[in-house]
Structure formats: C-alpha cells, structure tokens
Amino acid sequence: MGVPAFGLGTYRLKDEAVIASVKTALELGYRVVDTAQIYDNEAAVGQAIAESGIARSELYLTTKIWTDNLSADKLIPSLKESLKKLRTDYVDLTLVHWPSPGKAVSVAETMNALMEAKASGLTREIGVSNFTIELMQQAIDAVGASNIATNQIELSPHFQNRRVVDWAKAHGIHITSYMTLAYGKALADDVIGRIAEKHNATPAQVILAWAMALDYSVIPSSTKRENLQSNLQSRELQLDEVDMAAIAELDRNDRLVSPDGLAPQWDK
C-alpha cells in the first residue's frame, strides 16, 4: 500500500468550512483526506465522512500526531482520541507532524510508539512530516526505511527542497508535498501561466501535475467546489519535458513555513 498520489488537505479549515469542503470533495470523487490533531478539525472531518455515506474501506485517512503527544506514554492515547473524533477504528497513515521541539522526545521513542500503534491496528502505515535529512536518518535507524511511508514536506515550484527530496528518494522514502501552490503565490508565476495556456489548463492544475509527475503525493485544499473539481482534474494533465524543465528553473528556495519553536535546523 503506498500513499495515494492525490488527496484533500484540510489545514486552516474548521467547523462548517471543513465539513462542506470534505463533503463536496467526496461527492466529486476524492477518496483521500489529510488532517492533523492540531488542525482542531478531526471531529468535523469525521462528521463529514459519516454523513457522506461513503464506506470507510474506500477512503484513505491521514492524521498527524502533535508535538505534545510524541512520547511513548502519550502517542497511542492521543491517536485513539483522534480515531474517536474521526469516527473510525483506524487511520491509513499516521505522521509525526513536527519533530519534537528541543529534542525533548527522541525520534526513536516516537517511531517505536508509532510502530506499536501500527502493530495494534490503530494505523495501517506510519511516517513523518517536516523531517530533515538528519531526522529521517534517525527515523530509519529506529524502525527501518520500509516502515516509513512518507515524509510530508513543504514543496512548491518556488521551493523545490531538492536536497531533502533526493536524499529521501535514495533511501526509499516517498515524498508528500504540502503548500504545493505556495499559498497561491506560485499561481501568479508567468512561466506557470504560459504552460497552463499551452495545455488549456489552470495554473493550479499545472503545478499539481508537475508535483505528481515527480512522483510526489499532493494534498491541495479548497473550499470552492470549482477549485476542488479543477484540482482533481490535474491527475489527467500530462506535462512534457520542456514544461518540466521550465518549472525546475523556478526554484528560488522560498520557504514559507518555518514556525518559531517548531522548525528544526533546516537543510540548506
């Protein structure tokens, strides 16, 4: 079971907004939903899924363990709480959301607790998010690369994060891209605009197709039905080598997500 290539992100969406987004997405054919404990929307996501009438077996759900819950004594109870909110017996993927601030909890302790959660059927797969090369190495040392389904990282045409991507690929760790549209900044890029015109596509479709062509999973979010529909169609868009090369040139190391107190020492 690999991480699906395309799904729905729910970051920053709460209450009625997230319920409407998830319900609309499921209606349009989305089957992958990404949430997190800190988003404070797991219960709303669970409600939307329950009301959609779609069988749990058809869905792929991801949640992420918050930094307060990374220790061996807290991780599984917190995951059980997430499952209760999501109204399910298991999630398909559980990620470490951010590495433990100040290394308060070791990567090994957290990864081993996740392995225990997996062994007891609370989650089908486990992985990491916002992990640097050094942290990925620690995770591999703890549980082996074959047990790490993905590293979910910020990645967009303006921030291609190649060192981390190349290292992860070389060590058999799949990449999931978040903030793929760079908060919408990348949608205004002239190069992206020209490629979109060439293919009679939208800039968002071009960017998502680019990421999937590089074998990354993507989880764009939207509250607008037309954008949800349009993003879904990015799976059909085939970019050519010229397009891919042009987007490769757009990298400007423009990292947008680096919260104080959470961000590790990033790879340069």
The CATH superfamily of one domain is known as NADP-dependent oxidoreductase domain
What's the β-strand tally?
8
Q: What is the topology, as strand order, of the major beta sheet?
A: 1-2-3-4-5-6-7-8
Structural class of the helix and strand makeup? Answer: alpha/beta
At the first level of CATH, the class of one domain is: Alpha Beta
User: Count of DSSP helices?
Assistant: 10
Mean pLDDT: 97
Overall CATH architecture of one domain: Alpha-Beta Barrel
Q: Please indicate the percent range of residues in DSSP E strands (runs of 2 or more).
A: 5-15%
Shape: globular
Written overview of the protein:
With 268 residues, the chain is an alpha/beta fold. The protein has a domain of 184 residues: TIM Barrel. The chain is 41% helix and 13% strand. The protein is built from 10 helices and 8 strands. Helix 1 links the parallel strand 1 and strand 2. The chain is globular, with a radius of gyration of 18 Å. The model has no long low-confidence stretch (mean pLDDT 97).
